[in-house]
Amino acid sequence: MTDSTASQKLGVLGAGNIGRPVGRHWLAAGHAVAFGSRSPEHLASFVAPLGDRARATTLTEAAASSDVVLLSVPHPALGELLDSVGDLLAGKIVIDATNPVVLTDDGRVVSTLGGGLTQGRSTAKQLPDSTVVRAFTHIMDELLWSRGTQQRHFWGMAIAGDDAEANQVAGQLVHDAGFTPVDLGGLDDSAALDPGGAVFPHMFTPTDLRLAAGLVG
User: Fold this and answer.
1) Is 106 exposed, middle or buried, given 0-12, 13-18 or 19+ CB atoms closer than 10 A?
2) What is the C-alpha separation between 38 and 138, in angstroms, rounded?
3) CA distance 145 to 25
4) pLDDT in tens, 105-142
5) CB-count exposure of residue 105 (10 Å: 0-12, 13-18, 19+)
């Protein structure tokens, strides 16, 4: 897999600790990125040095104007976000990087979702007219920029989704961000990259990631 040669219009909904480094990687790969926020004016100092392919805008505008959208708001804000922009995401690939994470009283990191429901499947149920792929979830956010620039493609990044073409698009965007995509399968098979899963919150080489996720014996 090589870096993208065709620029895409990408939206980042939630320009925080995940959205900012991922968006910067995509800009460096030649894409146009709309950073969506409830308060886009607060992003002016961040976006200004990034060039004319970067812009700060509202969540609604970023969702409407982009071909592929990254969900990177804090998980407690996800339901409200999807209620407000879900219709604008119809027919689009939506990369869900949100994590329903909680620390238990005995110190375990687990998902807040019960009944074996994965985060990817939960989002897909809320966006029935979109194609949801999980990515950018299991690597600690403070490492997304440094590892994607200083050790490009050395580290694996798990992805999961039900649509092969969408997984390929998301995988290319993972590659453009400096990581090597490792496909874990469908959304129902993606518990390994959710909080409490086998690869959360850790970094692996692509081979070790496949081993940790149980893809090879």
Assistant:
1) exposed
2) 25
3) 7
4) 999 999 999 888 999 999 999 999 999 999 999 999 99
5) exposed
